[in-house]
Structures are given as structure tokens and as C-alpha cells.
Amino acid sequence: MGLLGRIITEASKDGSPETITCINSSFRPQPMRPMHDAHIVVLIGSLLAAACLWASLRLRRRQRLLHDLPTSKTLGVFIGMVELKGSAESEEPLSSHLAECPCVIYSWKVEEHWSRTVTSTDSKGRTTTRRESGWKTVDEGGQSIPFYLRDEEGVVLIRPEGASYELLTVFDQTVNDNEPLYYAKGPRHAVSHSDYRRRFTEQAIRLHAPVYIVGPARERDDIVAPEIAAQDDAPLYLISVRSEERVQSSLAGWSWFWWALGLIIAAVPLIILFVSEARDWQTSPENGGLLLTGYLVVWSATWVWMVYNSLVGLRERVRQGASLIDVQLKRRHDLLPALTATIGGLGSHERTVQETLASLRAQTTATPRGAAGPDFAGVAAQLRVVIENYPALTAQTGFSALHDQLVETEQRIALARAYYNDIATQFATRLEIVPDRWVASLGSMKPEPLLAAAHFERAAVNVNFTDTNRI
């Protein structure tokens, strides 16, 4: 008889039920409490749910950025994030590697199929045989060139380096080694266990194809005109053959997918409690819903944070647009006194000269943005009329340089004003949309006034596109 049997026997001889109960209770096997497992489930669930929530919010921020940006015409592009729609054009287009079609961007890949039989033996000496197969990339490449996006109002230069591409498949063919394409566009060597079957695929943006572009705009170095190019601090630079609606719906759909997946993961501990017999997790099954509740609370808080920050970013882009105008107005203000003195020296009482002088003097005290009074206006056109009537002006020392600087400055003002009005209109629209208007009230955000400046001229971008037939 063991120790436990002897103790129970002696207790029985004593005849005390209390003693027997005490002894039996002290040696009753204790069930394992699932506390340790519960903590692991909560920890893993929290990390996975947080990762899903982060992915959802990241995609949602991009979708809101695309929604916040107004679609600008090429004549309304200026410094800052812009959204453009048009066709891809080039004076000297590329020829793609496989399809040999005229394009501005292309990417191609050659894959070779392989298969093999694998035999393995486990620790008990049992032999198993399985078939493995797959595709291996044996060659790839691509190229891109700066190109123009053209719409009904003009063109803007696009520099695609550093952008994310969404291209159209222009070539997709699978061949065996007895077909000419196999070696004509692919390498001479074969991969291990090759089946001598290759797949050739190519994606591209064809010449004249419709494109959707979102990215940072900056000023060109050669002329007073904008260009779209990668910048380190830009939140997004996308060149896509898909429409804006399809890009946004894709981002929104994947955002909802990751949100729903995170919600399911957060609900797993609660589901486990209800279907298992171990209901003593933290003594109450309701505690299993803490992770689910926490997920919804964190999502709500981060959603408000995301919406508020997107509105702040939109407001800052409006203010940036206004500051760009102010900089150019200050530059023009510094040029006007010298021009006024030069024209005033003509000593003419012709009406055109007097009107131009009056316009120049008035522009030195242009009404500030949002204040009552006349808005600033362009004077380059009036000045050009005076030059045509008085050709001797161009011979005066420094006048031509002053005139060129004034024209260039007014072209910059035209660019800045168009961008400002576009983004200010979008900001005002956002402040009227529910639920954004509720979030905007947290920061007491107000719409910015639009600018009604007139007579400013844009610089012409002279390009000669290829006559290649539209594809």
C-alpha cells in the first residue's frame, strides 16, 4: 500500500469525516488553468489585429489622399501633390522588347517551367514520392523615359523614375523549345529539371494610352512650367493605366478586407471561450471580448485621427498654394518701380501708356488674400502693347531683362493661382461632407477664400509629338 493509501486508512480508523475530507481534498489532482494559454492567445491576437488595422489604415489614407486631390488640368498644375488624367505622349517613344509596340514605359519577364520527382524516407523507413514543379524567372528587364501627359488644355512633363507603376499587359505567350520565340527572346541556357517550356510576359504604357497620375509637382529647370517627378517626402507617386475610380475602389476594398480580418482575429478569443468547456478564463467569459472591444475602440480613435490629419494636410496644401502666390507677388512688386520709371520716361500722353502706368502703380498695393478690395491682375499683356507701339523701349538698358522677368513672374503667379483655387475648392468641399465636417469642428477649420485674379498668362510648352498611329 502506498503512502496515500496508508494516510487514508489511518484517517478512516480515526472516524473523522472532516479529516477524510481534508486529506482527500489535499491530494485531489488539480486541473490546469488555461491562464497561460489565454495570455498567449490574447498576445498573438493583439499583434495580428494591430497589423491588420495598420494595413487597413495605410490603404485608407492613400484612398483619402486620392479622393482629396482635385483632378487638375495641365494648365492648373503647380508645386505640390497633384492628380492628372490624360494620354501618354512622347516625341521619341520606346519600342517594347517583346510586343515591339511604341510606349513610354515597359517591363518584361521570361519564365521557364521545371518539374522534378522527389523521394524521401522518414524515421520509420517509410518512403514517399512527390512531384514538384514551378516557374523560374530566367530573364527580365524594362525601360522608361520622361514623357508628356496631354489633356484638352495642354501638356505636362512626367519623369517616371521612382514612381509605382500599374501597367497594361501587352504580351503573354507560352512556347516550347521548338518555336522560334523560345530562343529569340530568351537565354540559351536552361534551368535545372527544365520542361523546356517558357512563358513570355510584358507590361507597358502604350503611346497615346490613357493614364492616371498622382504625384508631386515641381518647377522645371528649363522653362517656367511644372513637371511631375519623385520626391523623398511625397506620400505617393503613382502612374497607372487604370482609372481613378478603379484605383480608389481597389484601395478601399483592400482596406475593408484588412479591417474585417483584424476584427475576426480580435473576436477569436471570445469565440474560443464560448465553444470550449474551460469557461474560467479570468473567471468570466465576458473578458474574452476585451480584445474585440479594444480593437473597435482603437479603430474608431485612429479613424478620427486619420480623417483629422488628412484635413490638416489638405489645409496645409491650401496655405502652401497661397504662400507660393505671395512669393511671386513680392517678386513682381520689386520689379514694378523700375518698369514704371522706364515707361514714364516716354513722356507720352497716349491713353495706352497712361493705362499701363496706372495698372503698374495699382499692383504695388494689391489687395491681400481674403480682404475686401480689387484682386491683383496681370499687366504683361498691356506692357506688350506699349512695347509694340514704342519699339525703342527694347533698346533701353535693362528694359528687356526687366520685361522678361515680369512676364516670367506673372506666369508663375498664374500657375500658383490655379493650383491654389483647385485645392481650396476641394478643402471647402471636404468641410461640408459628413462625417468630415464633424471632425473638422474639432480644429475649428474654416474654408479659405478663392482668388479671382485675371489677365495672367501661362507659358507655352512647345513639343512635337510623334505621328505614330494610335494603338
From TrEMBL:
Catalytic activity, EC: 2.3.2.27
All residue ranges annotated as the E3 Ubiquitin ligase MUL1-like domain in the record: 118-263
Catalytic activity: S-ubiquitinyl-[E2 ubiquitin-conjugating enzyme]-L-cysteine + [acceptor protein]-L-lysine = [E2 ubiquitin-conjugating enzyme]-L-cysteine + N(6)-ubiquitinyl-[acceptor protein]-L-lysine
SUPFAM superfamilies reported in the protein's UniProt record: LemA-like
Keywords, comma-separated and alphabetical: Membrane, Metal-binding, Transferase, Transmembrane, Transmembrane helix, Ubl conjugation pathway, Zinc, Zinc-finger
Single GO term (MF): zinc ion binding
InterPro entries attached to this UniProt entry: LemA-like_dom_sf (IPR023353), MamQ_LemA (IPR007156), MUL1-like (IPR022170)
One Gene Ontology CC term in the entry: membrane
Protein name: RING-type E3 ubiquitin transferase
Membrane-topology annotation of the record: Multi-pass membrane protein; Single-pass membrane protein
Family per record: Belongs to the LemA family.
Pfam families listed in its UniProt record: GIDE (PF12483), LemA (PF04011)
Subcellular location: Membrane
Enzyme class: transferase
Transmembrane intervals: 38-57, 256-276, 288-308
Entry's Gene Ontology BP terms: protein ubiquitination
